[in-house]
Amino acid sequence: MLIEDRLKELRDKINERVPSGIRVTEVEFEGPELVIYTDDPKRFADEADLIRVLARDLRKRIVVRPTILEDPEKAANEIRAVVPDSSGITDIFFDADTGEVLIEAEKPGVVIGKNGITLREITKHIGWTPKVVRTPPIESSTVKQVRQYLRSVNEERKTFLRTIGRRIHRDIPGRDETNKDAPRKDQWVRVTTLGCCREVGRAAFLLTTPDSRVLIDCGEKPDNAGGTPYLYVPEIHPLAQLDAVVLTHAHLDHCALIPLLYKYGYEGPVYSTPPTRDLSAMLQLDYLDVINKEDRKIPYSSNEVKTYIRHSITLNYGSVTDIAPDIKLTFHNAGHILGSAIAHFHIGDGLYNIAFTGDFNYSKSRLFNPAINQFPRLEALFMESTYGGSNDFQPARSDAELKLYETINKVLSRGGKVIIPAFAVGRSQEVMLALEEGMRLGKIPHVKIYLDGMIREATAIHTTYPEYLNNDLRNLIFREGMNPFLAECFQQVDSSELREKVINGDPCVIISTSGMLNGGPVMEYLLNLAEDEKNALVFVGYQADGTQGRRIQKGWREVPLGRKGTITINLEIDTIDGFSGHSDRRQLMNYIGQIQPRPEKIFCIHGDENNTIDLASSIYKRYHIQTHSPMNLETYRMV
Amino acid sequence: MLIEDRLKELRDKINERVPSGIRVTEVEFEGPELVIYTDDPKRFADEADLIRVLARDLRKRIVVRPTILEDPEKAANEIRAVVPDSSGITDIFFDADTGEVLIEAEKPGVVIGKNGITLREITKHIGWTPKVVRTPPIESSTVKQVRQYLRSVNEERKTFLRTIGRRIHRDIPGRDETNKDAPRKDQWVRVTTLGCCREVGRAAFLLTTPDSRVLIDCGEKPDNAGGTPYLYVPEIHPLAQLDAVVLTHAHLDHCALIPLLYKYGYEGPVYSTPPTRDLSAMLQLDYLDVINKEDRKIPYSSNEVKTYIRHSITLNYGSVTDIAPDIKLTFHNAGHILGSAIAHFHIGDGLYNIAFTGDFNYSKSRLFNPAINQFPRLEALFMESTYGGSNDFQPARSDAELKLYETINKVLSRGGKVIIPAFAVGRSQEVMLALEEGMRLGKIPHVKIYLDGMIREATAIHTTYPEYLNNDLRNLIFREGMNPFLAECFQQVDSSELREKVINGDPCVIISTSGMLNGGPVMEYLLNLAEDEKNALVFVGYQADGTQGRRIQKGWREVPLGRKGTITINLEIDTIDGFSGHSDRRQLMNYIGQIQPRPEKIFCIHGDENNTIDLASSIYKRYHIQTHSPMNLETYRMV
Ligand SMILES: [Zn+2]
Ligand SMILES: [Zn+2]
Ligand SMILES: [Zn+2]
Ligand SMILES: [Zn+2]
Ligand SMILES: [Zn+2]
């Protein structure tokens, strides 16, 4: 069936169900959604169940938009008139692209009203679909810029979403069961490993069916060798024929090279959660900055980051979404960093289900709930194995925190400084929360905790998306009004003068990027503080093979830094396990032990060679599930 | 280094070694050979060791050609003047394409002379490189046509060979070890399965490195569903970028779709042994004919068969040949059918060695020596598993022959006819040899043995290439002058009148194609003889899943034949195992038991699902070699 015919059929079905008098002017696929345009958005909104029923019967995600949108200024006034002042509205953004108006308020509940009554009232008055968010306690310039940019490319994005919508709902040959003459269609599902197998870094997996091609992640290898996924092999070309890129989370080993895809001809969407979109843009820009400072060749420019944002489509956890004619995507909480997701794919009409964990944490952390391991269906699982080795047991978080407190007390009391290299996103916030509590409860002295790199900005993004934090932290911030991230002990370092002052100043704690010492401001601290044995370098995160972090952790005492010379390492080197955003060996095994349903096949990836092999064989022995430890550049048939 | 620079370097080295006075006019890559053009081919030929030394030092296959070739008519006269009359020259073909003159003679030894003295004399006189072949006892129209066609496209072929020669010897990035700034080159070897996994048919394997891509076989699936390899997946595209197609042998499940590659944009060479080239062209044309008669859509026309022949490059067993910048190919006897080869690939500079057995027979047959299993090096082996099941033991050939004699005696004595469906190539000749001997030794009565389909022509091609038969048979034909293929009991059926006479005539034996009853003249016999229970249908070869042969063998008594109606099966159905051109289970295991060197990995392919899995697990258990039973559409990393 041609797409026009399908839309006509949908329009007819919608008209049948819509009460007479409500005029539907247009029905259109936009991205993964079916958009109903109507002259009567008010009456549509009045029919509280109508959209839900249509969505269920048509098996589509449905959005209703007014044919003509009210003037934003006038609409803003109407919103302020309808919503009680006690809501504390701080901003109103009109997004003509989606026909949504984003209402930022200190008390979103008041804007929404009981059972959504105020919200429906707003819709009736202004046509725009209201979306209410809580005013973030720390303003994020990234989030602001992303939103501004998206508004500035309204028209282009509208065209893009319609193009993608029509591609997603295109006919596939042999789909039409009534046409027996159609060529017999092969049925298969394949995964090609383009990186991140028997190694940590450059995650990239290609999921293909006879009709569709989806790339999951596209990261860099954090070993300073500029390692990229195997994007030159024919399996992934032409990039223009990829249906979708799905991003599990914002760490650079998963997202760094996504903008590059647009340079090489990709024109489709990148699906991620909203926080992942913002965090990844921030980290990509920082990545370009770091490379630039090191005089390495940058793989793409900030223009490609913009192009990526322009093509981004965000989905929240649990929303089942068509991303290709025969593939539905659902994100589930992965517990690893803000917005991190397990990507679950339902392929064909019940043909096959496969999930990619990305990085995940199966224990509850200070920031997040544990990773999800309950799925409607699941035949194959690609799971990370960072701590998959048989001895990779991590201490409990509380023990790790005690050890961190001890180390800090020891170093500070001898007049030294503590350098903690950390990923800007995730690890930094975990350590910040631990240190803030430690200081508040008097377990460590009141010294300054300097944050260098993108850490503060990353923290701001955390507070923009409170629904992605776990309940305890959300309550602490919003109910009890005690936002630990705003504690006065934290100070952002945002100039080289201040950095110099920190280096030459009093004993303190420095949390700085990058987390594996492959560039970033932490190198500046190390260069200046490494020779003094009073100081300490405290690793709180995984150090991948080939990084400076791994070398120093292994005991190197002379570390060459290219044209910056060589660092002589005299300061104390500590590794404190237990802050990881990853599951340790026990949790990885438990995750599989408790997973529902039990998959037929498990592929252990994202771990050193020994770890993936060990985890694969242990899962097979314990649970009798077929496992693989694939190599890069292999293709596995799922069905 | 640019190709021109490399050629200049080679020219300099050659000039250093060539005695002064011999002028080298040009040095050029042509296909896999390095061709030295000289004004003095006579003096070059006098220096008996020169070419051998150059080949060894330059590590190239070297051919010397005169800059200007003598007029063919004049040259033919000179040949006849030099060669003694007793040689019995039957034809002289000049192939301007290669600068070779093919001298067909009843006694080739006389043309060659003691230690090649007469041959060198010829070279000195005429410039053309003489190649001496024995006059085939049965003239093959295929061989004649192929040779005529190749002569008619001389000029185009010359250009083609130079293009290929330059492609084979092109620079590959990162090859230059002196250039440290060159991007670090990934090293990997992969095999992608495009067909023939957990099934018999549509063989197609893609061998790739970062620099080169080689397709091994491209066959059809003999199940009447028009099954083709998965040529639509991106791994193999664009076809124009394939470096080479390597054909193991002429059976349609390995070669049927090679001409199709040219229709879809392939422009490179197909490497095979000379008999495989001729047999495959014959079978491809017959294949088109059969499809056409059945009103199915033909996948390509005879033009593409010509294109294939125009792009064919033949190699004899044992000749180590560059086919890509980093890949050398060597064919070894596979013992399966005439010209059948195991394709051995040496990749990189000692990086990896991998062999594809094609179909092979590890026992000596009436026609061939057993398959080779000694290689200079070998890390991975893709082996056929047709009879890989744990119970797939075949009786000894002598027992099979006895059973065949018994069956024939029984059927003939009750006045019935014996129909033996057989592949035109291989099985037919084995059965012919057994029947001829049986009749000669009085083990079966003297009746006519009718050959229908391409059998006689296939037999003619066998006698064109006596060096590909085993010693016993060669001696019988040439030394003892008793060519069993010429026995008077055999009669070719070449008209529908004769076919009708056979059907209505006296008791007899009919050997006819196709071997699995998926089309061909055998269907005509079956249609007319199946209802009479006096007759018998005797299977002497493997019947693949999905073929009519398999259905009848399994006991179907009503066989639908499309618009030709339905055959009711009343005639006797027999299966006589033991004539197979394949190794049985015991021989497959012995082949691996005795292989040298022991490979690290074995992939069991070309067998039903159970058989490949069973063989893979048995080899692993017995020999502790890592084995796989891959599925179609997978990619395995070798290194
Ligand atoms: Zn991560
Ligand atoms: Zn990761
Ligand atoms: Zn392509
Ligand atoms: Zn064969
Ligand atoms: Zn075969």
Automatic annotation (TrEMBL), chains A, B:
Keyword hit for Zinc: yes
Keyword field: DNA-binding, Endonuclease, Exonuclease, Hydrolase, Metal-binding, Nuclease, RNA-binding, Transcription, Transcription regulation, Transcription termination, Zinc
UniProt cofactor(s): Zn(2+)
Region annotated KHb, chain positions: 70-137
Region (Metallo-beta-lactamase C-terminus): 581-639
Span of domain Beta-Casp: 428-552
EC number, as in UniProt: 3.1.-.-
Subunit field text: Homodimer. Interacts with RNA polymerase (RNAP), interacts with the Spt4-Spt5 complex.
Name of the molecule in the record: Transcription termination factor FttA
Organism: Methanoregula boonei (strain DSM 21154 / JCM 14090 / 6A8)
Gene: fttA
